[in-house]
Amino acid sequence: MTIDDLLRYAPDARALEGARRLFFSRRWQVLAGDGEWIWGEFAVDSPRPLRAAVHLLRAEFHCSCRSKRRPCVHALALLLKLKNRPDEWTVGQLPPSWVLQLQRAPSTLEVATAPRSIPDFAPSADRLASMAAGLEDLEIRLQDIMRRGLADTQQQGAHWQEMAARLTDAKLPGPAARIRRISATDTKPEVMLATLGDLFLLCHAFRQLDQLAPDRQAELFRQLGVSPKKDVVLLQPAREDLWLVMGVSEGVEDRLRFRRVWLRGEKRKRYALLIDYAFGEQPFVRSWPLASAWQGGLHYYPGVYPQRCLFPHPRPATRPYDGLLGYSDFSSMQHDYSRALALQPWLPNYPVYLEAVFPRLEAGQAYLQDVEGHTYPIASTFAGFYALLAASAGQAITVFATFNGREFWPLSLLSGQLLVKV
Length: 422
Hints:
Layout: H1 3-7, H2 13-23, E1 28-33, E2 37-42, E3 50-55, E4 60-63, H3 73-84, E5 90-91, H4 97-104, E6 110-111, H5 125-148, H6 150-154, H7 157-169, H8 173-181, H9 189-207, H10 214-224, H11 230-233, E7 238-253, E8 256-265, E9 271-279, E10 293-300, E11 309-310, E12 315-316, H12 330-343, E13 350-362, E14 365-370, E15 375-377, H13 385-392, E16 397-403, E17 408-415, E18 418-421
Parallel strand pairs: 1-5
Antiparallel strand pairs: 1-2, 2-3, 3-4, 4-6, 7-8, 7-10, 8-9, 10-11, 10-12, 13-14, 13-16, 14-15, 16-17, 17-18
């Protein structure tokens, strides 16, 4: 077994977090091993130190502490020490008497149960411990924000930047990016409150990591900024269909250009999201023209409500795409969105194909209105509203957009029999 394999026997993320704290402690008096066993003595407020030992080949753990969870934080800390501070160890010496007793009486050893079912796409044990500590600190800060109120917090730009930096140090790029996005002084209070609520839910979900199914673990890790490698994604079942490019958007973050391409399957009416990146002026690897159709199997990233995917071998379609149906009103759209949100509470964007909507402008705010008179705002930073208004000419139009629960971001509209960019 590798050390990472042994660390997977940890009963939960909190045990790893406690081991990480002991890793930095100066109370370790003895750190030694003989090739099969490692052992250590940890000073406490009693004449006799705590004594922990691990059999590296059989995944057997022993400690004199009173913790009921095994392996305990002391045994896990020994493994972290062995992995990250090998220079602190004495190797090859004769084991002390208490270790010899363990070696001669294996029936007294406390053998851990099977390792936790953390999927292959989970981060390392070291990173899990760092993430646990970072989320605990984040939860304390969130509670402090709620006590002080949003108005007071919005004025403290340095406070947000410090939070984001600490989350980055704790290997939590997902929450760090969310904090940076709401740090602007013009962030709406409702957006800020929703983001903080999402972060609080992340903290609580991480506590239940070991009780979550693998697909929910994958979803949680992705929200925290841990994405599986491409070879892991390509092991997911391929979804064969005829895929239509419904919408394409591009942007730039820190000189890194990104492109989001929304596809829709003909048979299952299922959406898929391709995300590509390019640095500086470099072109994207592949072109995805709007309204083009592609045949082949794509692989969704693991999750409870997967959207992002990889499309390794697309082939140009040999026949027209058929079956492009959408929502006739906002009520049916909201019903499906609520079901999706129940599965994936951090759902950033929900793709919608709206068959009959009217663009409206009231008091400087742009809206889309359905045939029943219900309205939702269009994002204030969307620049193509007047293109929608011109295409409408007072009549209902068909629009493909993303919806975040509050507002729309249109990506294309149906002109004749062809989708065009807005």
